[in-house]
Amino acid sequence: MATFAAESGLGVSMVPGRTLSGAEPPAPAPEREGLPPAGGARTDWWLTVLIVAGVLVVGYEVFHQQAFDPVLLALDEHQWMKFIVRPSMLWAVMGTILLAFRTVVWMRYRPFPSASFEEAPSLTVIIPAYNEGAMVRQSIRSAATARYPQGRLEVIVVDDGSRDDTWQHIEAAAAEFPGIVTPIRFDRNRGKRDALAEGFTRARGEIVVTVDSDSVIEAGALLALAGPFRDPSIGAVAGKVLVYNRRAGVIPRMLHVRYVLSFDLLRAVESSYRTVYCCPGALTAYRIAVVRQVLPQWSTQRFLGVACTYGEDRALTNSILHAGFHTVYQNSAVVHTVAPESYTRLCKMFLRWDRSYIREEIRFQKIVWKRPPLARAIALCERLITDLRYPVNYAVLFLLVYVGLKEPLVWLRLMAVIGVMSFFNTLYFLRSERSIDFLYGIAYAYFSFFTLFWIFPYALVTVRARSWLTR
Fold first, then answer.
1. Quick one: fold of 33-471?
2. Measured distance CA(188)–CA(167) in Å, rounded
């Protein structure tokens, strides 16, 4: 077989519904309501007009002095407020420019062509599992029955010392797909990094794909992930994450909208300058030669003297960028992952993410200087504006509370602004998915404002904590 870096024809030759082992295919993944077919989202003219108009309205409000009248009046009485108001206004201007840039780039995004059966490289799927129960079998089945050439696909499943019946489900899946699924069992819980490292070490494929044990990939995801590796400078390809249990409650529905925006907007923009900051553990493909190059440093990573036990996906992404390779996004490679259904589990997830964010953002400030000039310039501006949102938001929140005690109508105006801005954000969602769930995107804006504001400060002061917070 010719090396995968060579160009070749596309086109799929596999008979629909056929699996590599001859077994019946698994139940289809949850319906992706209104999602455009792989190959690029169709731009409706009316959505484009609304989005452009929305950017102009946001820009007008930012530059229009009357939008800040209540605060500016208070500023005349209390000069100390200028140390909050003026930097905040400057940040709002920069944020508007960034929003306009993201919108233009996002509209131009197109996924890479998927790999064909003739050119598809050998590929290993790695699924780390811990106390996952029956869900792990669905994850394994989705990988083992994905459309991919027979003989070039293997699935390695690592049971990280589970204390429930996870191992029994892994053994059953291995028996169902002999020659494809390789089960590995740790005698004790060693952590997700060790489980992934074991898989990386044993993998025989040119490309390795990580899939979480609570996630189900779509049939074409593996071929889609393999496609971008035609370019030898690409080290990792991020897939698109959707919510598997989106019908299970209000929180999963809100998270579904958030995930779509996070991937189809933010990662699509990051992919344009080949610097996706976090390739998700739920579905990402890596060039194995690059992974093994950075594996020793990644598997023993420490921060402030403490071993890192979470955020392995963002850490590995940083390591690959540090090695000089690019990271991109492929929205035609889709995985459905189980999202938290309760407030407690949601907070645990966000705490884990924010602690990893803090650690890896600090690390990225050194890595960014190794990026190509254009990517470096965009990344520096984008990260500066993005990271400044935390001090600005909390300072403005303090100011609003202070002013609101004297002028309660300020709070009504704030609620209106949140509603308008969140509705504007849902226009991006609607371009990716025609669904009434866009309303949950608006609800999430209020939900996060009132119930999740404490997450980042707490993550900051507990950044050295080692708990996974996954159970």
1. Spore Coat Polysaccharide Biosynthesis Protein SpsA; Chain A (3.90.550)
2. 12
